[in-house]
Amino acid sequence: MDAHELTQLLEAVRQGRVAPSDAAQSIRKAPFVDTGGFAKVDLHRRVRCGFPEVVFGQGKTEVQIEAILRVMLEHGQGGLVTRVDPATADHLLTAFPDGEHNRMGRTFRVRAPGEAGPKLGKVVIVTAGTSDLPVAEEARVTAEAWNCDVSLMADVGVAGLHRLLHQLDALGGADALVVVAGMEGALPSVVGGLVDCPVIAVPTSIGYGANFGGAAALLGMLNSCASNVVVVNIDAGFNGGHVAGLIARRAGQARLGTGKGEPTRE
Question: In this structure, which long-range contacts are made by residues 35-43, counting pairs with CB atoms below 8 Å and at least 24 apart in sequence?
Fold first, then answer.
């Protein structure tokens, strides 16, 4: 149940089409569903945060993930799973033939019925190198799941800065950028000095020994002198895409005149 569905339910009670006791029962059951002891699926996440719960696939069995997705779909919600290994993805594709597996980004997504709608906001994902693409793809899929217009600009790191400068026009008009970089993590600072929107920096674990598994990139980004750069955790493509999606979605809603709530639905 999201804010739109809750409003419809209350309107039905007002009009006498649904008994108050039946509405109370629907709301009482809505907060979460226990899948049998291993998960309590948060069905109120959309009401509180505007987006359904996202499943972190690492450490979960394919059967557990399938059960969680089925609960979400039964309640009219789509499902996004991150950190999906190939064997689990094959199982989920059998269980959900309409599902979308991004092998590079290690994501699996099942869309909710009637999920398509107007794109809300523009997000651009930028990578320093080709090796950063797995993290960038996770960010891209996440921002797309939040119904944003998303584009990807790959391999424009500071070792060949002219590659970025040739694509400055592609950064224009973005509501938020996600800049993914390993090694020393310098790219977000450069990008931040060229654009007038928030830059979500995502450090990756790509790099030689002194990169310390992404710690060097993380510290470099935290010490950025570009004042529009904020940083998420190492390899956290989901977090970068999610935050950028929140920013872009709010900007898109403002342009459509829908304010803080859900996009207008007919």
Answer: 35/64, 35/67, 35/68, 35/71, 36/67, 38/64, 38/67, 39/64, 39/67, 39/68, 41/68, 41/71, 41/72, 43/1, 43/71, 43/72, 43/75, 43/77
Distance (Å, whole) CA 242 – CA 110: 17
Q: Which CATH architecture has domain 122-254?
A: 3-Layer(aba) Sandwich (3.40)
Domain boundaries, the chain: 1-30, 31-110, 122-254
Single pTM value for the model: 0.83
Distance between CA atoms of residues 251 and 245, nearest Å: 10
State the Cα–Cα distance between residues 22 and 12, nearest whole angstrom: 11
Residue 8 is predicted with a pLDDT of 83
Strands 122-127 and 176-181: parallel
Instruction: Check if the beta carbon of residue 198 is closer than 8 Å to that of residue 249.
Output: no
Question: Are 52 and 45 within 8 A, CB to CB?
Answer: yes
118 Cβ neighbours under 8 A, 6+ residues apart? 147, 252, 256, 263
Given strand 100-102, what is the order of strands in its sheet?
Answer: 54-56, 79-82, 107-110, 100-102
Mean pLDDT by 10 residues, the chain (266 residues): 72 90 72 74 74 89 92 84 95 94 95 75 95 97 92 93 89 93 95 94 96 96 95 97 92 70 39
pLDDT at 262: 46
- Bridge-based pairing of strands 79-82 and 100-102 is unpaired
